[in-house]
Amino acid sequence: MLTVSCESPGVLVAHQRPRPERGPAEVLLRVKRVGVCGTDLHIFTGHQPYLSYPRVMGHELSGIVEDADADSGLKPGDAVYVMPYLSCGHCIACRQGKTNCCVRIQVLGVHRDGAFAEYVSVPQRFVGKADGITLDQAAMVEFLAIGAHAVRRGEVAAGQRVLVVGAGPIGIGAMLFARLRGAIVTALDSRQDRLDFALRHAGATAAVALGEGDEAQLSRLTEGEFFDVVFDATGNPGAMERGFRFIAHGGRYVLVSIVQGEIRFSDPEFHKREATLLSSRNATTEDFETVMKAMREGLVPDVALATHRLTLADVPAGFPRLLDPAEGVIKAIVEC
Description:
The structure is a single chain. By secondary structure, the chain is of the alpha/beta class. The chain has 2 domains: 195 residues, Medium-chain alcohol dehydrogenases, catalytic domain (Quinone Oxidoreductase, Chain A, domain 1), CATH 3.90.180; 125 residues, Rossmann fold. The protein contains 11 helices and 17 strands.
């Protein structure tokens, strides 16, 4: 089968591998769509902290069942989505239902080879039927679920002021699901094209361009009180540290981004607000179900999100351009 692997930072190679054998309690899938994520871009550039090379990327996938156990509830030809966070089911996090931060988590495309291949075999309990949604939508559930999980972590409520810093796919997911909870959403980003997208498609009611005077503008939008919930989806340490300044008194700060190294903040400023600092990692079954329900109700702008397409064979040559801001990429979909 055709497979594309990242041999080292900046080096993608297409080659042939044997088709995987389905193991016990696994499902063999013919991969149909794979979304390109910021994680994949970080792997390509050498900035993903949980990875060793070489690695077959790709964790946002949909496919068609080729083979499954008779008692799995799945049959050949079924369209499915995959939850790529392969959790152990037994550790302290899993016992609390927090499978998204399992102690022994194995994420497809990060800790083990992923879906930039024609076939993949995955444990049955992480495969779900994509009933009522398209293959494109099924490949977008995962990244949107990360945004939905962050919004749930932030306990966003109707009427609250929400700031999302970083209007990439994850930030857009946070905006969408904050707006669906009735929040008043503001986007902050350095790219005008992404701010425009946030206003047109992601439910933002205001958009502020990063730069001189942005903090004053955010203050004016909130009558000097700033935001009940702030989300960082930038992957930039400086932005993550600066975001503490935008939390309202009594507010919450949700770090969806992950970076190597440390971030710092002013304890007096944090303390006087009695602010809450939260991390948000991956997503759970509940978040996947939230996204799929919204998709079935027509509340997710999936057609607008899918701005770029390439075939699996085109990935080695076409992948680098997805890093170019001039391309205006929101979500690239690899078709297998």
